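Question (not urgent): is this output format expected?
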Amino acid sequence: MSAIESAGRARVARALRDHEAEIAENWINLQVEQDVLVAGIGEGELRGEADQLVASLRGALADEELPTARLASEHAELRRTLAELSLRRARGGATPAAISLAVLALKDVVLEILRRSTRDATELFEAAVVLNRVLDAGGILAFDQYVATREEIISRQSRQLMELSTPVVRLWRHVLAVPLIGTLDTSRTQVVMESLLQSIKDDEAQVAIIDITGVAAVDTSVAHHLMQTVAAVRLMGADCVISGIRPPIAQTIAQLGVDLSAILTRATLADALAAALRITGDAPLPAGVGGGS
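Got this back:
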């Protein structure tokens, strides 16, 4: 670290130390003026957030082993403070731009303190360069954290929706069914497999019925995913029946040249249940319910 950078960091750190309460208060007020705060954050929480950021920034500036441009990303305490600020505000509904602007607003507040306390233009410039480097990087880090947080939330919600859209239903003793609706892609196949295999283990199921009545179209990819699921079910020691093979679906599968001859298929779920009961050796269904072979 050069002597100029070291001197600039010392001036900024001194300003943060000597005017800590004022900086925190002015930072909160500036965010209110810029309308970058989100509803639901109380005054006490804002004050704690401000005090923590100022203290973390001062501690990072004292770390002489890290260059200024890498303080936000590599100083553990400062990085954690920025990440927590971003996460808290993202959950409150703030936009990524608003979160970045909130961090960058601290520059204006500290620069005003430095202008009042430093008459030398060169010293002010050196301190401003340090402040810009560390808080510009901090704003970018807060933005990136927001994006990562939103992606995690979206991914988790997407998986939850897939789990809800592919329930494993117990139809009979030792017989489970998975009614599929919509598109069967790689990620959904994984969810279906995990849920079905776990249910087979928990219920000691002997037969799993995969009902594709609600699948609009079957192509080579969908057929491949179905065969993967059937193979996984068999590895668990259970038999598998595919139901919902309507005439258009059967014609498409034949045209694609997909070989499902080794898999038991039925036109309806009722027929599949009747076949499953024959496999398990359970009592036959009441008259008028299923029974197709």
